[in-house]
Amino acid sequence: MTIALLDYGSGNLPSVEHALRHVGADVRVTGDPEHLRGASGLVVPGVGHFGACMTSLIERGLDAAIKDFIATGRPVFGICVGMQVLFEGSEEAPGIAGLGLFEATVQRLAEDAKVPHMGWDTVTWDEPRHPYVADIPFTWFYFAHSFASPTFDAVGVTRHGGRLIAAAVASDNVFATQFHPEKSGRWGLALYDAFVEEAER
């Protein structure tokens, strides 16, 4: 069973690949939509500007490929901007549509918040717990972002600049984190492990 790690020119691919392999995944790094057909799970990373990420996905035909993969019911894991592109759009790039899985717009962090939100912060999991986080405590994860999604679909939240923001969101077979599990030590690896176990069922 293979986990496809999407290469579209944005994302910390070596670190994510290393983390996935550490928990036992057979990883294929690919930017070819055809290579997604035989994968048991899909990881969508992302670092940088929302508009640049979406433009790259569209130019490579990967926007449609992600939607098609989601429609099959196989598990998908989004990371940082790879989470944000799952929304309808972002204030970072007005006029550029996201994939629209979550019906909300990613917003700039509050004016009184430190921007970017960089470093370790605690995440509180909503009840009832998502299966991926059933055994993970309220603990610290590593963030690096200037925009964040609202908490409508959140399964985990963090507080930054006096307001709650989504640290993790989920919908059916899709799970995504604003923080970087591959930089978050033991509990970040536990999240990847839960995802890989789900993909191998």
Strand order of the largest sheet: 2-1-3-4-12-11-10-7-8
Write the element-wise H/E pattern from the N-terminal end onward. EHEEHHEHEEEEEEEEH
Main CATH class: Alpha Beta
What is the gyration radius calculated from CA atoms? 15 Å
Helicity, in percent?
A: 10-25%
What is the arithmetic mean of pLDDT?
A: 95
- How many strand units? 12
**What is the domain tally?**
1
Task: Assign the structural class, choosing from mainly alpha, mainly beta, alpha/beta, alpha+beta, or little secondary structure.
Answer: alpha/beta
Q: Which architecture does the CATH hierarchy give at level 2?
A: 3-Layer(aba) Sandwich
Give a brief description.
The chain is 24% helix and 33% strand.
Report on the structure:
This protein has helices spanning 13-22, 50-59, 62-71, 81-84, 185-199; strands spanning 2-6, 26-30, 41-44, 76-79, 87-90, 102-108, 117-125, 139-145, 147-148, 154-160, 163-171, 174-177. By secondary structure, it is of the alpha/beta class. It has a single domain (2-199), classed as Class I glutamine amidotransferase (GATase) domain (Rossmann fold, 3-Layer(aba) Sandwich), CATH 3.40.50.880. Helix 1 (13-22) links the parallel strand 1 (2-6) and strand 2. The longest helix has 15 residues, at 185-199. It is globular.
